[in-house]
Write a structure and sequence with these properties.
With 353 residues, the protein is of the alpha/beta class. The chain is built from 14 helices and eight strands. Helix 3 packs across helix 7, helix 4 packs across helix 5 and helix 12 packs antiparallel against helix 13.
Length: 353
Amino acid sequence: MSGTVSLQADVGNLGLLTLNSFRSVLSAMSTDDVQPAAMPQVQDIGSLFHANGKFASTVSDELQRSPSHRLDMLSCAVGWRKGDATSILSQSAGGQAAALLALFLRNTYDHRTTGEILYWLPQRCMPRSRCVASIKQLAEVLTKVSGKIASMGYGNFLAEQVTKLRLVYFQVDRAIPDDFLCNMTEETTAEMLECISRAQRETGTRARIRGTTSVGHIMTFPLVLCADDVEIPVEGTVIHGGSNKYIFLEVVYPPSDQREITKVQLETAMELKEFSSIVGGINGDFPQKDVIRTFSWKGWLAARLDLLSPSIQILNRDVVITDCCNFIWNLFPTEEAGEIAGQSGPWLELLGP
């Protein structure tokens, strides 16, 4: 008899056992109507970036939150259920970075455009064999993820950055550019994301972005994703300086006779590669109709006014905020108006600082 020992395995049973170990994951994806092929690809795309900073430190908690409230008479639950599909992303660094990417894209573009950008980006940075999800599938994942972490208040943060830009131009006594919030095309956004990703991953490489067109969106994304890796000088004044300067965003408004669109470049020790020009969207629309810009309750009204400022040229923000306070005050009876005047109640949080 031969001394050779042959090993046999029941492949059918092994497959069932393996599938059983992923039962909770598959159940969550099925319940949330998310394609199983799309979620790993979104996580792989997130792995192209290194998340750090304030938003990165809290995104995991936001992805896992599940404050469901049961309505017994209706026999249903309202809210986020525990172990939903988006909570899977909280278990890896790539998933958390992907969630912040989804927050940026869904607050800037409509549903389908977000899927198109996330479809084009891995074509540039990942093997073709790992790009299996469709535009529709990717868009569905992004919309669900951004909805889960909407309470992070991306809109408020965007308004804060635009206000910082405006204040610098007030201080240097120069006209405020009116193109801070122009929409970028899908192709140039994908190229910008590739440039930022490579600057973070490749040794001796830095992304340089210079101009004013769409710079409100451009500067907010890296500040949300990787604030420690960004330096932002505005007309020579540094408004943000991270410990790692992989991304250098220079906001400069040239004279009208020398006006140029925003440039994105990838710098290395050996060469300077120009990626693309960031151009305005269709007729400079602000914003697209289907964009879901999310805000936290505190400072909601002030943030909305700040985002309107570049397009309608509100020169004195504080005066406008005060007028809004007075307007709302006059809408209510004396008792409720007194709450506003007495520095109490939720209205002050809505109106912002």
